[in-house]
Amino acid sequence: MEKIKDPRQFFFAIICNVCRYRCGTLQEMRLHVTRNCPVQPRKIDLCCGHCGHVFYKWPEIVEHLNQKDMHNQPAFRPEYVFPVDVRPDITLYPEDPENIMVCHIT
Question: What is the C-alpha separation between 24 and 26, in angstroms, rounded?
């Protein structure tokens, strides 16, 4: 069990293109791609909800998102918005896939 404590919670989603999982922090996405992706763990194919760019290497999306005030930037398109009120202090249970929070674009 790991707590997500990343203070940089984005107003836009970071999206796993492998399984469509969405989250609002780099820490949560790192846990997803390294342990929790139900389709293909460790595959990096991520979409940045701020600009729509797709990243295939973890260091590149980290560098892209680790910019001053990036966590306060808006989403590129309305469907990439990740509302603040659905981002509490989240606990992930990697050993129990039924407890993985998944949000889908509606």
Answer: 7
